[in-house]
Amino acid sequence: MGGNLSKYAPIFLVLALSGILFLLRNIHTLERWNCQSVSSLYQLRSSISSVLKPAGQFLALDHNQTFCLHLGQEPSSEEAHEERYLLDSIAWPGASRRGVPVRKSSDPAHSYFVIQPPGSGQATWRVGGKLEVLVHMQNFLGQPKRYGGDFLLARIRSPEIGAGASGRVVDRRNGMYAVELPLLWSGQAQVEVTLVHSSEAVGVLKRLREERPDRVYFKSLFRSGFLSETTVCNLCLPAGPKQAALCNYTDSHTGEPWYCYKPRLLDCDTRVNHAKGGYKKNLLTTTESLLFASFAIKAPVQALGMDNITILPAIKGLSLMHRDQVKFMPPGYYYQGSWRPLSGMPIQQFNDSSAITQCLSGKLFYMYGDSTVRQWFEYLNAFVPELKEFNLYSPKNVGPYMAVDSVNNILLTYRCHGPPIRFSTVSSNELRYIANELDGLTGGRDTIVAISIWSHFSTFPLEVYLRRLRHIRRAIARLLDRAPGTLVVVRTANPQKLDPEVSLYNSDWFSVQLDAVLRAMFRSMRGVLLLDAWDMTLAHPTQPHLLHPAPDIVKNMIDLILSHVCPDKQEKKS
Ligand SMILES: *[C@@H]1O[C@H](CO)[C@@H](O)[C@H](O)[C@H]1NC(C)=O
Ligand SMILES: *[C@@H]1O[C@H](CO)[C@@H](O)[C@H](O)[C@H]1NC(C)=O
Ligand SMILES: *[C@@H]1O[C@H](CO)[C@@H](O)[C@H](O)[C@H]1NC(C)=O
Ligand SMILES: *[C@@H]1O[C@H](CO)[C@@H](O)[C@H](O)[C@H]1NC(C)=O
């Protein structure tokens, strides 16, 4: 083996030298011939780029990165109109303000909230009413902020009784925020207000999304015989006379774009896998990075005065709520640790695995998307002993996965969504777009489809996500047309744990924007159950925000789905 390798050493040396300039822009390596050479090439590349990249100074892109916004199936005029409307509707106030000194940015420690007295001449708070809270944002100098755009979250909770609900935050655009919290149970309840990011930090995130959609990059391995090469891939890659040629993997059905740089020696059809390449660093100036200090991210805003209230039971026969008060209702709330939807089907608890088996008996349950839907597969597979996972020899955490209960005829599958999936290594022949997978389903009353696609889109412009969802929505419409009884569950995004680094790639601010688009596009679609993972995470009285919500929350999600699969007969009759 060693003798064989040394034969190629001179060729390799020439290739390596001629490749160095090219490597400044592209990670383009020859793998396998000599692992050590590969890693030293990586090192060389990063040492050259760190020489060229002055620390703390943002380096403008040297090419026009439009990220293939206008590829994909042609939008109808209605869809194009919808896209413009959606993009307008999620415009963030104050996000284009630049050059605010850090000391004048929002400081959670100097900011405070005040519980407002009960409204409408009431003496106390009662179940069925609402609690109003006013948040006063201040900067690090302790001066009131005069403009909006801060990203705040709020909830009310009574941990002792396992109760919690999210609040609605309204930006008054003058440094004050009105929070409305629903009163849904009686007892002592505590209010929590969290600053996720200052408006100044949101401005930086918005700039990153527009200017650095390449801050997460991808790679593919190409292999044929004893030759192998790895090149950089993305939704769009800069092409030009100075660049390597491209391999075009644009999907023929949906038109979803995907490209890799062409390997120097191998053909495009020798691609064997797809993987997350890595995260680009040095994205921020020193000043900007201060806006992402740990104490400024997901930090509590304290109450001025009381942070808790006592909620009295509703008075029977007396409606406390005036019509104009009922404007806001969350999708549900927790009580005794269980999720209670405020509209739609009542939820049942599937505490025993036998109840789940009975409900899923005869069902085909297909799950598609990112790791947040894989959690559902994992939960069911682990909790229900009759479900046996079939060994497909899939890599861990990547899939595809399949579990079967052949006695009760239950099939469970999981498959990840297509590029830009950031999983470790997905075989190229397992890269599928959800829309195409849906087109391959027969569907019907015994079919359940669950889709979760959001997290891996957070680094791209919103148009990229809109286009992907449009393709999926069309495929769902076709599926429901040919098989009307199919249950389609679309999972929303959820808030997660953030630190200074994670924020730049996966901030909740990116997620909340994607989520707004997703909700608007699926909310009113008949036959689609929108599962509100955002609210189920935010409202939970004790569980922290995690990219993969705690098992407790997952259990509530599964209960919600199964309640739709197997509606309670008694409830149905009444
Ligand atoms: C990038 O290219 C697109 C399409 O060719 C063009 O519309 C856009 O103005 C360009 N943007 C920049 C910043 O050059
Ligand atoms: C890639 O292929 C698609 C469809 O096959 C085509 O529309 C697109 O223009 C191609 N991209 C480039 C850069 O040639
Ligand atoms: C309610 O808030 C007051 C004032 O902040 C505090 O002293 C008290 O301990 C709180 N009560 C509960 C039950 O959290
Ligand atoms: C299911 O478990 C929860 C939590 O342990 C419990 O509160 C609830 O009463 C149980 N429900 C049923 C139907 O067994």
Describe this structure in words.
Pfam families: Neurexophilin (PF06312), NXPE4_C (PF24536). There is one protein chain. The chain is an alpha+beta fold. It has helices spanning 2-23, 35-52, 77-89, 199-211, 286-290, 353-360, 371-383, 434-439, 462-482, 500-506, 508-522, 533-538, 551-565, 569-573; strands at 29-30, 112-115, 125-126, 130-136, 151-158, 163-166, 168-171, 176-182, 187-197, 216-224, 227-234, 246-248, 259-261, 273-279, 299-303, 308-312, 332-335, 338-341, 364-369, 388-390, 401-405, 410-416, 426-427, 447-452, 487-491, 528-531. The strands form four sheets. Strands 2, 3, 4, 5, 6, 7, 8, 9, 15 and 16 form a ten-stranded mixed sheet that branches. The longest helix has 22 residues, at 2-23. The radius of gyration is 26 Å and the shape is globular. The model is unreliable at 19-63 (pLDDT under 50). Bound molecules: 2-acetamido-2-deoxy-beta-D-glucopyranose (4 copies).
Short summary:
It is built from 14 helices and 26 strands.
Compute the CA-based radius of gyration.
26 Å
Q: Any ligands, ions or cofactors bound here, and which?
A: 2-acetamido-2-deoxy-beta-D-glucopyranose
Mean pLDDT: 88
Question: Which band does the percent of strand residues land in?
Answer: 15-25%
The CATH class of the domain at 345-573 turns out to be: Alpha Beta
Topology:
Blueprint lengths: L1 H22 L5 E2 L4 H18 L24 H13 L22 E4 L9 E2 L3 E7 L14 E8 L4 E4 L1 E4 L4 E7 L4 E11 L1 H13 L4 E9 L2 E8 L11 E3 L10 E3 L11 E7 L6 H5 L8 E5 L4 E5 L19 E4 L2 E4 L11 H8 L3 E6 L1 H13 L4 E3 L10 E5 L4 E7 L9 E2 L6 H6 L7 E6 L9 H21 L4 E5 L8 H7 L1 H15 L5 E4 L1 H6 L12 H15 L3 H5 L1
Parallel strand pairs: 2-15, 3-16, 19-22, 19-24, 24-25, 25-26
Antiparallel strand pairs: 1-11, 2-4, 4-8, 5-6, 5-9, 7-8, 9-15, 9-16, 10-11, 10-14, 11-13, 12-13, 14-23, 17-18, 20-21, 21-22
Helix pairs in contact: 7-13, 9-11
The structure holds 2-acetamido-2-deoxy-beta-D-glucopyranose (4 copies).
